[in-house]
Automatic annotation (TrEMBL):
UniProtKB keywords: ATP-binding, Nucleotide-binding, Transport
Pfam family, one: ABC_tran
Protein name stated in the entry: ATP-binding cassette domain-containing protein
Residue stretches making up the ABC transporter domain: 5-236
Keyword Ribosomal protein set for record: no
GO molecular function: ATP binding
Amino acid sequence: MERAIETRGLNYAFGSGPARTQVLFDVDLTIHRGEVIVLKGASGSGKTTLLTILACLRDMQDGQAMVLGEDLVGASAGLQVHIRRRLGFIFQAHNLHDALTALQNVRLGLELHGGKAKAQWRDAGEHLLGLLGLEDRVHYKPRNLSGGQKQRVAVARALIANPDIVFADEPTAALDAESGRIVIEMLKDLAEARGTTSLIVTHDERVVRMASRVLTMDQGRLVADETAEKTDEMEAG
């Protein structure tokens, strides 16, 4: 199977000298194309740090990492931008532009990935927002949207350019059950139809149950790598 992400001996620390605090220790990880991976662990276990390194949002320090066949060790700013254009991001903070409407925020996801014809932007953006139950909110600005609606706009923006990998940090935390189910099914459909890989930090058991594998981190170390079925059996027992 084609590898989407691979790390060997990945380490990371914040600060320097006496204030240096290591937060990742020798992380070895292989994720294949089309897998939907959940990353679990207590607060401070290193999940978000690992996610941001692999998403080229934080520079490598020590170890090896390959994303979509590109080596992150010593990667130039230009190469990191090139990689990010093949990725989708869903974060809790939404990061929507206050001056733009929901549709314009979603279109921005295309512009950052090289863009398409304007007619296609509108069609694709409206289609995704409609799937997420926001067909009557496409021209609303973020200040007029609820937290859950903002999160759905952020999901649409992340998926509109058909990314090769989706990185998501608690993507369903602000969503009701139905909206969360729709987002989960969209990620599964992308995996099956396009081989899109998803790496998701979450405690949401709905997401855990649909994952290909569940990885668990503890104090900066990867301590478990299980199939979702095995995790469900453990929980049931």
